[in-house]
Design brief:
The chain is mostly helical and 149 residues long. The protein contains six helices and no strands. The chain is elongated and about 50 Å long.
């Protein structure tokens, strides 16, 4: 039975797609991690942005300082874990990769657990206008608005 050129083209396309997929899986995590700004840099920008958007008052500065410090501590922890992961990407087994990802996810969850009560205290001291802005910011409303500009 003679195969048509369509069958060869389809097989070639599948082979190329498989190579691209394997390359993406193998190389993307290290490229993405290398291209991203550090967690600490992003945290500093977020601290400054939130301070301005939430219009933190002088009476709220002590509470805000605790929040900012927690954000910095969390970012430092996340940087250490992601740098460790990036350094070992090419040599990790699948199990080590999963454990590494789990460590990062757990650190993120712990950071949120520490952040929440600190922010809750600040939120309780906010004016209605500040609360409304905080609600919008944490819902992601400002992110959507800034990407539509």
């Amino acid at each position: 039975m003679k195969k048509s050129s369509y069958q060869f083209t389809y097989a070639a396309a599948r082979a190329v797609a498989a190579v691209v997929m394997v390359a993406t899986i193998a190389f993307a995590p290290s490229l993405v991690l290398a291209a991203q700004a550090s967690h600490q840099d992003r945290a500093e920008a977020r601290i400054k942005d939130l301070h301005a958007k939430l219009k933190i008052t002088s009476a709220q500065e002590d509470q805000w300082a605790k929040i900012a410090q927690e954000m910095r501590d969390d970012a430092k922890s996340m940087d250490a874990l992601t740098q460790k992961r990036a350094a070992n990407t090419k040599t990790m087994t699948a199990v080590e990769d999963l454990k590494s990802y789990g460590e990062i996810a757990e650190a993120h969850a712990n950071g949120i657990r520490k952040f929440t009560p600190l922010f809750e205290t600040l939120y309780a001291s906010m004016s209605d206008a500040q609360k409304k802005e905080a609600d919008a910011v944490f819902r992601g409303g400002n992110r959507r608005k800034s990407t539509n500009k």
